[in-house]
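User: quick one, sequence for these tokens?
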């Protein structure tokens, strides 16, 4: 972006993002020097940046005010805790004649089906949104007694006062059979059994239809569970309904189904942590701290401080290696992320979060741990280590956001990181603008577009976008972090530029830094400078890796973790 560009034209570019969030790519792509941009903006530009940020937020809210969308081909109903329909999309109105104001009794399901929905709503009211076990998948009958539907009940990303109820007709897509046989290696007989299960047939009915013994059908079902990696019929229904909807939405494109398959799998193929690994903890002051914990409870604990964007998700193969080595991973969510309550904007984050984690460790009776901080999670590591004297075996920093003592250290960052750091240090109004623009892009185009904007300038990382296991973990992580919205992004960035080398140097534990070789011009010089200043740290560099080394390979990290394993 030319720093001499006419102020009015530059202002138009900033405001244009409100009408079309995707234009943020053009705006950032034109910015060749983040520091030059920040320093060249006129002094009175702050008020325009704040107004542009407000315009983006206002337009984004108006475009996504309803939690349902008429562009969604799947019937979707927004229903509140009293069973009142707050909104419905065109597909729900056309197929089920459901309109706003209808009550639970008006929904198109038979009486047992409506009772199951009422049970889910009651659980939501009793336990709260974070403890309700959502999403829930049901197979219900319609009032006509002939057709069955798959019903998914889940929280709304836009309105915590409603649940989203989506239906999918139990109709067997012709292309799904070929997909199951190719991707899961099901036999022709097993695929036919899956089709009948999908229609809601009982085992005895399937046996009669196929002219087979009941024991044969049960054996085939067990084989189907093993091959698809599901834990039972409920998980199989979830997988099949998702595949059917995805197949329809993608025009039966099997390759695209495969690319998105990880988002549907509840078992062996999906990223860690999973729904059963998540919990919430009531802090003494009344706030909620969300966390995940997977792995054996009697092994060493890796306390994971999640990245700003990647959340606490691990590719399944990486998590499996940790589990095989006996490690458990405990990941508390920072305030405002996932199910953790946010802090007011005027309260410091790092110290409060460190105290929250200490309280959680005490509650879980964890006496010792190795702290792993990834990306911007490293911002919170020094304070946490200082709050846990004698309880941290070692601190492992993976592609960390390190102190930025001068402008030269900012210039060594990747394009997007340099812009965030420059804005946080010199123009917080620009940081708020970037936060609003990023949230609008996330809401309008989804996590993949947001992810490519953030990491797309590192050639070492781009090939990872096509790996289904990595795409699954990253997309889930972006969704995890996307719930933090503008406040979480802004607070993390402001904490980052306040970091000093002394905060890390005071950590009285062994410290390891793990980065990709593509970081030779970014983090590596910062680490070297801090080493020369007396920071006792071991630097580990992974060749042919970039910012996303966390997703590329787990072996270097596992070797470091194993070296920190204690006798306790």
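Assistant:
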């Amino acid at each position: 972006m030319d720093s001499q560009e006419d102020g009015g034209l530059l202002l138009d570019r900033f405001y244009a993002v409100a009408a079309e969030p995707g234009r943020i790519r053009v705006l950032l792509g034109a910015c060749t020097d983040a520091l030059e941009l920040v320093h060249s903006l006129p002094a009175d530009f702050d008020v325009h940046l704040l107004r542009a940020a407000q315009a983006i937020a206002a337009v984004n809210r108006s475009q996504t005010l309803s939690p349902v969308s008429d562009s969604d081909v799947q019937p979707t109903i927004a229903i509140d805790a009293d069973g009142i329909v707050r909104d419905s999309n065109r597909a729900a109105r056309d197929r089920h004649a459901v309109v706003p104001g209808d009550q639970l009794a008006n929904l198109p399901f038979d009486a047992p089906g409506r009772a199951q929905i009422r049970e889910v709503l009651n659980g939501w009211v009793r336990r709260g949104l974070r403890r309700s076990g959502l999403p829930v998948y049901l197979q219900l009958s319609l009032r006509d007694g002939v057709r069955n539907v798959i019903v998914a009940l889940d929280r709304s990303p836009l309105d915590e006062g409603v649940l989203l109820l989506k239906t999918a007709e139990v109709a067997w897509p012709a292309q799904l059979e070929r997909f199951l046989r190719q991707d899961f290696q099901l036999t022709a007989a097993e695929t036919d059994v899956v089709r009948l299960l999908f229609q809601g047939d009982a085992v005895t009915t399937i046996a009669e239809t196929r002219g087979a013994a009941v024991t044969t059908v049960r054996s085939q079902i067990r084989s189907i569970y093993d091959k698809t990696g599901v834990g039972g019929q409920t998980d199989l229904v979830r997988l099949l309904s998702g595949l059917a909807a995805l197949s329809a939405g993608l025009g039966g494109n099997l390759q695209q189904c495969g690319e998105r398959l990880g988002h549907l799998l509840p078992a062996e193929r999906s990223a860690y942590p999973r729904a059963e690994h998540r919990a919430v903890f009531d802090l003494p002051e009344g706030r909620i701290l969300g966390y995940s914990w997977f792995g054996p409870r009697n092994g060493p604990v890796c306390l994971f401080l999640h990245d700003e964007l990647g959340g606490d998700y691990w590719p399944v193969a990486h998590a499996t290696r940790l589990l095989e080595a006996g490690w458990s991973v405990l990941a508390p969510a920072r305030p405002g992320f996932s199910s953790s309550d946010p802090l007011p904007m005027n309260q410091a984050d790092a110290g409060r979060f460190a105290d929250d984690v200490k309280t959680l460790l005490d509650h879980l009776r964890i006496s010792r741990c190795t702290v792993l901080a990834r990306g911007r999670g490293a911002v919170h590591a020094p304070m946490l280590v200082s709050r846990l004297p004698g309880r941290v075996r070692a601190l492992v920093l993976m592609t960390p956001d390190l102190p930025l003592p001068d402008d030269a250290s900012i210039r060594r960052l990747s394009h997007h990181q340099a812009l965030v750091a420059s804005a946080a240090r010199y123009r917080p109004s620009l940081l708020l603008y970037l936060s609003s623009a990023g949230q609008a892009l996330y809401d309008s185009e989804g996590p993949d577009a947001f992810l490519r904007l953030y990491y797309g300038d590192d050639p070492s990382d781009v090939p990872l976008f096509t790996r289904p296991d990595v795409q699954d973990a990253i997309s889930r992580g972006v969704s995890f972090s996307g719930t933090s919205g503008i406040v979480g992004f802004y607070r993390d960035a402001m904490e980052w530029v306040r970091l000093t080398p002394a905060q890390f140097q005071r950590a009285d534990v062994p410290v390891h830094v793990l980065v990709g070789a593509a970081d030779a011009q970014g983090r590596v010089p910062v680490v070297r400078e801090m080493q020369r200043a007396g920071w006792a740290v071991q630097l580990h560099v992974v060749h042919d890796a970039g910012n996303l080394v966390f997703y590329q390979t787990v072996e270097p990290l596992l070797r470091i973790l194993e070296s920190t394993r204690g006798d306790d």
